[in-house]
Amino acid sequence: MTEHDQKQESNQKTKRTTIMLVLISGAFAAILNQTLLATALPHIMADLHLEESTAQWLTSIFMLVNGIMIPVTALLIGRFTTRTLFITAMGLFGLGTLICAVAPTFGLLMVGRIVQAAGAGIIMPLMQTILMLIYPVENRGSAMGMFGLVIAFAPAIGPTLSGYLVEQFPWRSLFYVVFPIVVIDIAIAYFLLRNVTERTNPRVDVLSIILSSLGFGGLLYGFSVAGSSPNGWGSTQVIVSMIVGAISLTWFILRQLKLKEPILEFRIFKYKMFTLTTALGMVVFMAMIGAATVLPILMQNMLGFSALESGLALLPGAALMGLMNPITGRLFDKFGARWLAVIGLIIVSVTTFMFSDMTTETTFAYIAAVNAVRMFGVAMVMMPVTTAGLNVLPDKLMPHGTAMNNTMRQVSGAVGTAMMVTVMSNSAIPDQGLEGAVHGVNISFFVVGFIAVVGLVMAFFIKNPQRDARRYG
Q1: 17 CB contacts (<8 Å, ≥6 apart)?
Q2: Does pTM top 0.85 for this prediction?
Q3: Between 398-427 and 206-228, two packed helices, what is the crossing angle to 10 degrees?
Q4: Which residues are listed as membrane-spanning (predicted)?
Q5: Domain segments of the chain: what residues?
Q6: CB-neighbour burial class of residue 97 (10 A; exposed 0-12, middle 13-18, buried 19+)
């Protein structure tokens, strides 16, 4: 390699690293914001005189709008330059954050959350698309590993940071903490971010956007309400939203298959590897999010721990997952996804079944240790299978692949939470008091353990054709 080539390669690496830092900062702010609010809800309820069912909309509406925006991102990536779209998404997110910080009423706070979610819904799939396009196939695992570090680290510190801030300062401080990160990131992106996605100017099909919003929005809302509603799946809200969601989504998919320029390209499921890894990612995400919801309920309502203690029990697992993501990314670049996924799912399956045998005497140390090992397993699966699936897609389909991946993950997170909470409630034995309630939790983990075993079987079918072709060709 000549000196000129070496210099060129060095410049390219520097540019890639700069772009990556800009993107990761944006994603960090978006994910941190999502996890900050849960701990602060009681303070917001007291300050604005809200009922729990009303205040819950501050988190539900964020997830809903996020879920609606993600499928549309592939269309937006085709119509706008990378730089314009990223700065606009961060601008929307920043504007929403500012509205939330100064909102005197619940109505305006909701508006702020909607604007925030509209920006955040674009940021995540856009970021994945850019990373997959600027890195060569052999380095994508490491890049996605760094991305995974942020995805895990922000939720790890979110609840603890939130708990500290709302005890020391007014709840608005949560938004004032996020806002400067957004402003700095927009400024850096303005000067350093270059265009990497190809503009194809696809035609905007308004009916598809409406159907997508009703389809994904209806299903996400139905699942999230089923998990928190006293009537569960029998609630009228749940039944109506699920029916509307299912009909709209079916119509949306059929329409996309007929359009020359679909908003979301469902033909990418013809790539078997992408379909398999997307399904695997959904299984793991379902197991991860469901447990993150059920464990704090178990610890606070049944085992007598405080909110802070339940947050601290999950902290080692989230931190370990964050630290492992860059390592599993490098391992993926060397060995491919199959054995990482197999070993990871064995760990997830075993630790999930360990959570299906708890009692009222279960200790803090047991929950924290088992959860940490479990999250270690999740880290071995999550980013490697995502990267392996996206690697088989041609560059022009990358925006559709990342949008589909993120959409399916949102849906599986809502399904996992609703399923675990429903199984937990239905399997509880009221006559046996706390023991009966813990029994419900055990059954919910048993069900998830079975799903993890199904994922383990699927993991054996992962292949890496490009890598094999290079090695043996």
Answers
A1: none
A2: no
A3: 30
A4: 21-45, 57-78, 85-108, 114-135, 147-167, 173-192, 204-223, 235-254, 274-297, 303-323, 335-355, 367-390, 411-429, 441-462
A5: 1-201, 203-262, 267-473
A6: buried
Whether the per-residue pLDDT at 128 is higher than 90: the answer is no
Distance CA 473, CA 466 (A): 10
Residue for token digits 């398999």?
276
- Which among 464, 414, 419 is positioned nearest to 277, based on CA atoms? 464
Q: Look-up: residue for tokens 């940021």?
A: 123
> ∠ at Cα 138 (136, 142), nearest 5°?
95
d(CA 297, CA 290): 11
Among 233, 212, 213, 215, which residue's Cα sits nearest to residue 223? Answer: 233
Residue pointed to by tokens 């897609």: 393
Rounded distance, CA 230 to CA 208, Å? 34
Q: Which tokens go with 111? A: 């508006």
**pLDDT of 273-282, one tens digit each?**
999 999 999 8
- In this structure, which CATH number among 1.20.1250.20, 1.10.287.130, 3.40.630.30, 3.20.20.70 belongs to the domain 267-473? 1.20.1250.20
Residue 156 pLDDT class (50, 70, 90 cuts): low
Where does the pLDDT of residue 52 fall: very low under 50, low under 70, confident under 90, or very high at 90 and above? low
Q: By the 8 A CB rule, do 128 and 147 touch?
A: yes
What b/e string do you get for 433-469 counting C-beta neighbours within 10 Å, with b at 16 or more? eeeebbbbbbbbbbbbbebbbebbebbeebebebbee
pLDDT at 241: 87
Greatest pairwise CA separation for the chain in angstroms: 78
Per the model's pLDDT, the better-predicted residue between 211 and 226 turns out to be: 211
CATH 3.30.390.50 fits 1-201, yes or no: no
- DSSP sequence for 395-419: GGGHHHHHHHHHHHHHHHHHHHHHH
Distance of CA 375 to the CA centre of its chain: 15
Which of 248, 264, 151 is CA-nearest to residue 205?
264
Amino acid identity of 341?
A
Q: What pLDDT shows up at residue 72?
A: 82
What count of other Cβ atoms lies within 10 Å of the Cβ of residue 167? 10
First to last CA, the chain: 23
CA nearest 205: which of 79, 101, 315? 79
